Amino acid sequence: MAKGRKGPKGKKITLSVAKNCIKITFDGKKRLDLSKMGITTFPKCILRLSDVDELNLSRNMIRKIPDSISKFQNLRWLDLHSNYIDKLPKSIGQMTSLLYLNVSNNRLTTNGLPVELNQLKNIRTVNFGLNHLDRVPTTLGTLKELHEVGLHDNLLSTIPNSISKLPKLKKLNTKRNPFPKAEESDTFIDSIKRLDNLYLVEEKDLCGPCLRKCQQAQDKLNKIKSMAMAAPRRAIFSSLVSPNSTAKESQEDWR
């Protein structure tokens, strides 16, 4: 930036403006939606609305998240995707009600993720995609309630085994990382299989109709498996809110 020139001046968010941006979700929760408003600095006035359940500051130009964000003790849903954030505050670990955290399409490095993330014991969905992570933070493997993890479009060369051992993990996106072998991420994802109920019996213990039903079910599973192996693999992280872009070059267009 040339000397004497200032950065872009963002929109000023007043308490009155923020109050008008509070919506009630379908399940009766209060959501403060300040997305796509050209904000460059975290608006301190919204700390007076810390009773909201959901906060959306995505698609702005915010560079820093202050420690005071921990005042949102009721927050269960935090969306910060598509900003210029390079690190998260340590105080985020105090937001133990969080179920959903999206910080994709920012400038985060692995060192910018605090160890205190391991305090988010209730978190179910995290999206770190489209950042600059060169390794998966070890704290991620301690979050036993995780169902969905986004790590796509980073600088990862490996995925730690602690991730595969997460007991409730169902969806993982590690696409477009520089793994040594192209199939490594696919092999890892294939290892995440969950069986809700498994009962073993011998054929001789089944009646004729039950045996035929089991055989038909097995034939159907085999057919589906063969079709899946023949078809190209699809992305399995569709439920996370993440940028439409498939390459880092389009991050600015996404904003």
Provide a compact summary of the structure.
Keywords: Cytoplasm, Leucine-rich repeat, Repeat. With 255 residues, this protein is α/β, with parallel strands linked by helices.
3D structure, described in words:
It is a single chain. The protein is an alpha/beta fold. The chain has a domain at 15-173: Leucine-rich repeat, LRR (right-handed beta-alpha superhelix) (Alpha-Beta Horseshoe). The chain has five helices and eight strands, in the order αβββββββαβααα. Strand 1 (22-24) and strand 2 form a beta hairpin. Pfam families: LRR_14 (PF23598). May be involved in the regulation of spermatogenesis and sperm maturation. InterPro entries: Leu-rich_rpt, Leu-rich_rpt_typical-subtyp, LRR_dom_sf, LRR_domain-containing, LRR_R13L4/SHOC2-like.
Low-confidence stretches: 1-5, 193-202, 233-239
Q: Percent helix among the residues?
A: 10-25%
Q: Which descriptor suits the 3D outline?
A: globular
Tell me the strand percentage band: 5-15%
Order of helices and strands: HEEEEEEEHEHHH
Distance between the termini: 20 Å
Which superfamily, in CATH terms, is the homologous superfamily of the domain at 15-173?
Answer: Ribonuclease Inhibitor
Whole-angstrom Rg: 22 Å
CATH class type of the domain at 15-173: Alpha Beta
Q: Walk across the major sheet and give the strand order.
A: 1-2-3-4-5-6-7-8
Mean pLDDT rating: 82
What is the CATH architecture annotation of the domain at 15-173?
A: Alpha-Beta Horseshoe
Describe the sheet with the most strands: 8 strands, mixed
**Got a strand count?**
8
